[in-house]
Each structure stands twice: as C-alpha cells, then as structure tokens.
Amino acid sequence: MKEDNPAIQAQNISPKVASKTKRKMKSREMAYYFMVLPAVILFAAFHTFPALQGIYYSFTNWNGISLDYDFVGLKNYINLFKDVTVLDSYLFTFKFAIFAAILVNIISLAVAIGLNSKIKGRNFFRAVYFLPNVLSVLIVGFIFNFFFTNILPDLGEEYKIEFLTTNILGSADFAWIGILLVFVWQACAFNIILYLSGLQTVPSELYEASSLDGANKWQQFWKVTFPMIAPFFTINMVLSMKNSLMVFDQIVAMTGGGPGNSTTSISLLIYTGGFSGGEFAFQSANAVIYFIVIMLISVFQLKILQKREMDM
Amino acid sequence: MKKTIAILSAGVLSLSLLAGCGGGEEDSSDGKVKIEFFHHKREGMETIDKLIAKFEKENPNIDVEQASPPEPSTVLRTRVSKSDIPDIIGVGGDMTYKDLSEAGVFADISDDKSLEKVQPAYVQMLKDVSGLEEVYAIPFATNAVGVIYNKAVFTELGLEIPKTWDEFIEVSESIKAAGKTPFFHTYKDAWTTLPSFNALVANTQGDDFYSELNKGNILAGKRYKEAAEKMVQLTEYGHKNQQGVGYNDGNTAFANGEAAMYLQGVWAIPEIKKANPDLELGVFPFPATNHADEVKVISGVDLILGLAASSKHPEEAKKFIEFLLEEENAKQYIQEQNSFSALNGITQDDPSVADLKASFEKGALTDFPDHYIPTGVAPEKTLQTLVLEKDVDAFLEKLQKDWEKVQDRK
Fold it and tell me: Cβ A170–B14 below 8 Å, yes or no?
C-alpha cells in the first residue's frame, strides 16, 4: 500500500508499466489483507484484549466476582515475590520443563532417524508414533492415572517389586516422574514429525560423499545429519520447552497438583488460585510475570540456537 | 466474486463465534417462563429432575432447567464475573456463599416468611459464615460427618462403638491385631482429609476461635495442634497404598469390605451402596476427644436455595423455592440423598444414620471449621502433606502463614 514500494523503485521500468503493476500489486495486496484480517480480528478479540484486561486487573484487588474493586498498585507483584507457594511452583515447573524438553528431543530425534530409514512397515510405525498426538490429553491423563493407581501396584504385588506396590502419583518425591513419563510419551509424537520432515531435507549425496571419505554412522550423524537439521533442532527445542512450561492438563487429570503442592505447575496455580481460590487479581499478576518469563526464555533460546546454526 | 465469498464466509464465521457466546437467555417460544436452577449436588440431579417434573406439572407455564457441572464453584464464579447469573443458586453454606453474598449476587431475604420453616441454628450458621447480619439464602439440606463403619466386622470381632478418642484407638488396635484394615484412607484426593480434620478441629479448637478470628486473630497455628497430631495418629491405621488411592477407589473398597471404618461424610453412603447394596453399614459420631458428653457432630449446610438479585423472573423462581420447601418434597430429597433437612420437623429415619440421631436431637452439632477458612488458603493441600510427611510443626506453621498471607492480600 505504501507509495514508495522499494521493490518497484528498484526495478528500472517505465512509469506506465510501473503504475499498472502497482495497481495489480495493490489489488493483490488487498486480497492478502482480507486473508489475514479475520484471523487478526479474532485473535485480538479473544486473545490480545483479554490479555490486556488481565494486565489491568493485576493492579487491582478484584477477587473475580465482587462488583467493586480498588487499585492497589504494585502490591500484588510485591506479594508474589514473597509467596512460597509461587516460588515452589516455579521450581517445579522449571525442573519439569528442562527434563521434559531434553527427553522429548533426544527420544524424538532417535525415533525419527529410525522411521526415516528403510525399514519394513515404515508407514505403519509412523502412524503408531503419531497416534498419541491426536488423543485428548485429559483422557490420556485419566487412563494413565488408572494405570498408576490400579494396574501398576497389582503388578508390583504379583512380581514382588517393592517400589511398584504403592502409587507413585501419591508420593511427593516421585509424582512428577509419573507426569513426566506421560507428558514425554505424548509430546514426542509431534516432535517426531518435525524431525522426520527435517531429515528428509538432507540430500543423500552428502551421505554418499561422507561414506566415501570413510566416515562411520556415528560420525555421519554428528558431522552431516545434525548440522543439516539444525533449524529443526532449534524449533523443536523452543516448542517443547514452551509446551512443557505450560504443562496443565496432565496434572489436572493425574494429581490435581498434589500431594501437597509438589506437582503444582505455574499454569495450574494461576487457574486454581485465580478461579476457585478467589485471588483473581493476584494470579493475574502471576500470569503477567510468567508471560514475561516465557517470552524471555523463548527469545534467549532462539538467539543462542540460531547463532549455533550459523556456526555449524 | 471470490473476494466477496471470502469476506462473507469470514464474516459469517466470526459472527457465529460471537453468537456462541451470547444468547440462551430468551424465554422459550411457547410462552413459558424459563428459570435456571444451578446447584452443586451432582449426586442429586436425578432426585431434582423428579421434583422439577412434579413442579412443572403443577405449574405448566414455568420451565425449570437444572445445571450442575463438575467444578461447580469455579463455573459459578466465572459465570458471575461475566454477569450470567442463574435464577436460583444452590451451593453449600461455605466460602462460596460468603463471596457471593458480599458480591451482591443474592436478593436479601432476611424478612422472608420461608425462613420461619428453617431451624434457627442453620440460619445462624449462614450468618456466621458470611459475617453478615442479612440472610441471603434458605438453608435446605444439611449433611453430617461421622465414622462410617462396617457392621459385620464390628460384630465379628465383638467390638463396641467407641465413645471417646482412647476407645477409638483401642478399637483400631484390635482391628489391626485381627489382621484387618481399620481405616480406608484415600489421601490421593486432597479433600478427603477434610472430613476427619473438620471433626477433630471443631472439637478441639476452643470456643473463642471464631470470635478471635472476627477480630483478626488467626489462631490456627496454636489451636490446630491437637487435631493435627490426631490426624497423624490415624495414618498409622490405614492401608499400604493410602497415599495413592482417591475418593472413588475408597467408596468401592469400603463397599467390598476392605476396611472396618471409613472417615467420610454421609454423602458417601449412596455411592457405597451403589457399589454394594447388601453392605450393612452404620455411622457413629466421630469421637474426637475423651469427653464423650461434649463431642459434637459436624453438620453443615449442604445446599442453600438462593434467589439471584438479577433474576428476570423472581416470582416464578420464588415459587419453585417454596415448592422445594414443602414438607413432602423436602422429605423426598433427604431420603433419596441420605442427607438431613434444615427444615423444622423433617427427620432422617434411615437406619444407617440412626447412631447420629441422638446428637441431632439434643443439638450437639457444630459447623465445618473449614467453611471459615478463606478459599485461597486451600488447607487440604497442606493436610495432604501432613499425612504424608507427618510433620506437625511444619503443618501448623504453613497453615498459619498461608492464612495470614491471604488475609493480607485483601
């Protein structure tokens, strides 16, 4: 729409042709605007606007239902840093997210390499590994909840395996591992697909050339495959880290944040405290801080990993 | 042409999304007045359906719709915050009632004639919980917490119903010695620690606990000590996987005779009977202390009937509330729900709760202490840690701090 479109200026063409092209460009641009407009409006109405409202409420003492509320300035933010429950939930979430992101990436990459090789029933296996992604997270959570509560303890009794006889979801020290297992199992599906598409972009000539030079499979992976799929590694790292920082459904279905607060993630704390706990404004402040934290982490990851892509 | 279609379809799409948010408030087209009854008794939906059918027969121009979603308190709060308030609201006499009253959701019914039908103790309970002089809802049904026990096991081992705490522990010891499980604890669901904790706290926290609380003094850290120690003691008489099973598992296990006693409210009885209709069970008052005469049974308001101030059809809504308060209908509700009535002269005659009857008759009742703890404190989470770690001091300190913290934020 801009009059000084650099693309047109740069080309040395007659004004008549230019104006014609311009008009053509204009109508094409209009079409593009119409394509993005509905999404922008919906996004603004259902995402940006509520987010701004949340920031507004974080400076008040609104409890979520009362008719009036007062501005309290930064009080919520100050209380946030004094609250042990909030601190504990940050520690849990980061511990969880780091383990989850690393495990998801290692496992997905390994499985993707397997699924990319010429094995029998390759498409069947691809479908099997993708299946968890289309299942509802909550239902998977409930199924595993049943598995940990009823099936595993029975197996433990049967085969005299002591640590299996009690439900690990009821243990303050190990409940998070149960949730981690389910999370990783389900999250891998999507990352495998991303890695698979990455692996298919690696030209087979590179492998031929490297094997002529006498590289073994291990060297091929580190010197050829891994550098070639670096952009996919970046996006997978960022996405899986972000997703595991937002962990919510699995916890609701499996432990409800317990025992005690040992598996209360930040998202869960914001939800339970904000809606049923009557601390809407306080948890809004928590959400604002958490939004900033996630954004910083994502930007930081992108910067570091993209720099690494250049170096390779 | 293509562009027009694109714009149109985008417009239609976004409009239909918006339409999904609004609407639903119109009266039905056949001229009937539609009122909504929102309540938190999911177990009672069937009974209420029957009562609604009867009401609609008597009042063909009124259409009553009931709603009872999971996580009712959260759903209700969300609906109130966007001013989509049901005509009749049925919650417990707890912090949700307090918050809704303070928010001005209910119509003031302090002078309503229907209140005369209600036992004054329960009206007082609502006043105490909300800390307000006005009454905003009619107490309808009440519940009770006791010790649910398997009669067959008690007869087999020749045990008497314990009247004091020491006898209670003795009974548990003999059940354990006989190779059976005394209690089926279900600590995986944090809230299932609350019934026994409430019974213990109510009998040990001291009479001036609430009056001090109203002055701003939180005494939880000091006064909950005895209750916390007894909670820890009770964990010794559970089963091996008590940290790992929840409420539903507990109901089934107790129904199948896996334990002699079960620390729950009477609301669990219909669920237990569903799992095993032949089980002979009873409920005795929780012997929280060694002073048998002073032990009070925990009984709180389980279901209130509150008229929304914003209701468009207050007359019709009131009519339905009055219908529920009629003796015959109130009786049907408590019989099918195994609960107790807040109304004068309506008694629960089910043999399973016969042992509680004496307490009800002499008025040895007291409200749930956790109805006075602000929702943000979430004592059940701290209790779940207590029964796991068994560290009484840490529990008291955390609960006290959490309570002060929430009060500070107001």
Answer: no
Q: Are residues B270 and B399 in the same domain?
A: yes
The CA distance from A153 to the nearest CA of chain B, in Å, is: 8
pLDDT (tens digit, 0 to 9) for every residue of chain A, 312 residues total? 444 444 444 455 556 666 666 666 678 888 888 889 999 999 999 999 999 999 999 999 888 777 778 888 888 899 888 888 899 999 999 999 999 999 999 999 999 999 988 888 888 999 999 999 889 999 999 999 999 988 888 888 888 887 788 888 888 888 999 999 999 999 999 999 999 999 998 888 888 888 888 888 888 888 888 888 988 998 899 899 989 999 999 999 998 887 888 999 999 999 988 887 878 899 999 999 999 999 999 898 888 888 877 766
Note whether residue B198 is domain-resident: yes
Cβ contact (<8 Å) for B77 and A37?
Answer: no
Q: How much is the pTM? A: 0.81
Chain B touched by A278 (CB under 8 Å): yes
Residue B17 lies in a domain: no
Q: Closest to B103 (Cβ–Cβ): which among A31, A35, A65?
A: A65
Interface check B103 vs A, CB under 8 A = yes
Any idea of the CA torsion for A212, A213, A214, A219, to the nearest 10 degrees? -110
Contact B275, B256 (CB under 8 A): yes
B268 and B305 both lie in a single domain: no
Task: Provide CB contacts within 8 A for B203, sequence distance 6+.
Answer: B286, B288, B289, B294, B295, B296, B366
Same-domain check for residues A141 and A257:
yes
- The answer to whether residue B382 sits within a structural domain is yes
* Residue span of the structural domain in which B83 resides: 32-143+300-358
Cross-chain Cβ contact B99/A38 below 8 Å: no
Q: Are B38 and B117 within one domain?
A: yes
Contact B381 A165 (CB under 8 A): no
Rounded distance between C-alpha atoms, residue B184 and residue B179, angstroms: 14
The verdict on B60 and B128 lying in the same domain is: yes
